[in-house]
Amino acid sequence: MTTPSAAAPIRLGTRRSALAMAQSGMVARDLEAVTGRPVELVQIVSEGDTTRASLASLGGTGVFATRLREALLAGECDLLVHSLKDLPTTPAPGLIVAATPRRADARDVIITRDGTRLEDLPAGALVGTGSPRRIAQVRAANPAVEIRDLRGNVDSRMARVRDGELDAIVLAAAGLSRLGAEIDLHVEPRELEGWPTAAGQGVLAVETREDADPALLAAIRRLDDPATRFAQEVERTVLAGIEAGCHAPVGVHALIDGDRLRLRAEVYGAEPSQTVGRTEDLLIGPISASAERGYSRDTGSADDDASGAYPRADDIGNEVARRLLEAGASDLVSGPPTS
């Protein structure tokens, strides 16, 4: 392993979309403040950026990450910034998610021209989304609307509402916030208790090689937010535990509130009556960072049997997944609801 010069720019690989560049720019500025070194953005084109096919048909989860990870492993860049919800739950060999900075707003929002609530849209209204989870949630909220696949950047998606092609679209609040987009449309946030979003939504993942320069790895880990890391680890462990991939309509959100964790997970069926859900309110104790591991599943005592030991993120996620499966979730994760 070659140790770079202290003054050499740190190369941050990113997709070329406006949102990816904005997110990467946020991390770049924080990393420059920590290291005192310049950070340059290296634009990398992925398959997901060059096709208009639906995300489900492309394989969904991981479609944006594969090319970036190849570039990182090949030494074309020193680190990557991903939207965590785009990453498969299985770790990538040779790579490590060294930091998950503080989470942004994890909610979805409904965008309309006139502020009509989703539940009040008339029969036949056209709602744009390409996410199986969002499709199921929209249909549960208003079975009379029609769904249209939605791709493109935030501006082009909102233009389809503004121009009357669609009556509403579903977007992530975090993306709108990070872009600082000028919005001349109506925004209706959906609260997480009744509309849990994708595992890791609103979280950025800073990924680097396992054999990265120790000084760089230590600097990246300083960007980590332990509460965010713990919450998203619970969410992604639930997703992995029910073996739900990109085609599965699953919403799961974990909120850290002091020393408690509140979680809502739902696996959606083709009909609202088929939905399997789980709510948890657990004492988890203090959340602490692991300077040695960075991206750690552990909190509290390392000895699960020790007095005062608190549950770990993966223990909580696996238990929730088990209960969802027992309740029938395994019958719902084989594919998206039919159009």
Please write out the topology.
Blueprint: E1 10-14, H1 18-35, E2 39-43, H2 47-50, H3 55-58, H4 66-73, E3 79-83, E4 95-99, E5 108-112, E6 126-128, H5 132-141, E7 146-148, H6 154-162, E8 168-172, H7 173-179, E9 186-190, E10 204-209, H8 214-221, H9 226-241, E11 250-257, E12 260-267, E13 276-283, H10 313-326
Parallel strand pairs: 1-2, 1-3, 6-7, 6-8
Antiparallel strand pairs: 3-10, 4-10, 5-8, 5-9, 11-12, 12-13
Helix pairs in contact: 9-10
What proportion of the residues form beta strands (DSSP E)? 15-25%
The domain count comes to 3
Q: From the coordinates shown, what is the CATH architecture of the largest domain?
A: 3-Layer(aba) Sandwich
Number of strands: 13
Strand arrangement, major sheet: 2-1-3-10-4
Estimated structural class: alpha/beta
- What is the CA-CA span between the terminal residues? 51 Å
CATH topology assignment of the largest domain: D-Maltodextrin-Binding Protein, domain 2
One letter per element, helices H and strands E, the order comes to EHEHHHEEEEHEHEHEEHHEEEH
Identify the CATH homologous superfamily of the largest domain. Answer: Periplasmic binding protein-like II
Backbone CA Rg: 20 Å
Parts with pLDDT < 50 across at least 5 consecutive residues: 55-61, 290-308
Overall CATH class of the largest domain: Alpha Beta
Shape: globular
Largest sheet: 5 strands, mixed
